Amino acid sequence: MSRYLVALDIDGTLIGYDGGLSPAVRDAVADVQAAGHHVVLSSGRSLIAMTPVAELLGITTGWMVCSNGAVTVRLDPDVPNGWQLDEVRTFDPGPALRLLREELPDARYAVEDIGIGFRMNALFPEGELDGEHQVVDFEQLWSREVTRVVIRSPERTPEEFSEMAARIGLGDVTYAVGWTAWMDVAPKGVTKASGLERLRERLGVDRAATVAVGDGRNDVDMLRWAGRGVAMGHADDVVRAAADEVTGTVDEDGVVPVLLSLPR
């Protein structure tokens, strides 16, 4: 039996909007692992926010693609923290931040410090970012290269965010707009798909033996990349169009039948 690479988004795919992980999802993931397949958590979350999910799922070895592809880690219970950095892609966030600040002067901006938390110009709403939070002057956000920038502007809709990003021309970075007025900015060309392709080659998995499940705009490239891309039932039309098939919603544990359909 060929070993599959199974890339799984977290929020809205494995974990519901209430933050809960259902026993059926946990058991299905464990079943796929026990069958010998590579289960790779692939999320816009930072590393520090993904490791608790891996623990809940009982995943202690293997790989995770974090920060929308900018950070790849190898899980290993025998090393400090239980993980090792494998690849880190960074960029100078200054030009993008200055452009965005002109359009969104009242927005909240944060940059990721891997394995620690975030530096930000103002505190984000409670629970939205994990790890330590350090409030700094805006100019200090580009004091060094980073893996990821997060922009939060609660007063604006996702549609307004997308229009603004296209209009000001963020051509030197990769960006994704979330369900709310939230934008992730990453190094140019870096997506979940780019991180997963590198892992696929490293693990020697055939492209036809790749499966990806997700629900958000930051999953579009991943779903197109996979040999079998599956959109969650609550995903919007853009995400559905990128997928080969659509499963149930996160409230229906839609990821479970996908996982149970894999070879044993």
TrEMBL record:
Molecular function via GO: hydrolase activity
SUPFAM superfamilies, per the entry: HAD-like
Keyword field contains Hydrolase: yes
Keyword Hydrolase among record annotations: yes
Coiled coil regions in record: none
Keyword list, A-Z: Hydrolase
InterPro entries (UniProt xref): HAD-like_sf, HAD_sf
Record-linked Gene3D superfamilies: 3.30.1240.10, HAD superfamily/HAD-like (3.40.50.1000)
PROSITE patterns tied to this protein: COF_2 (PS01229)
Pfam family, one: Hydrolase_3
UniProt-listed PANTHER family: HAD SUPERFAMILY HYDROLASE-LIKE, TYPE 3, PHOSPHOSERINE PHOSPHATASE
Protein name per the record: Cof-type HAD-IIB family hydrolase
Natural source organism: Isoptericola peretonis
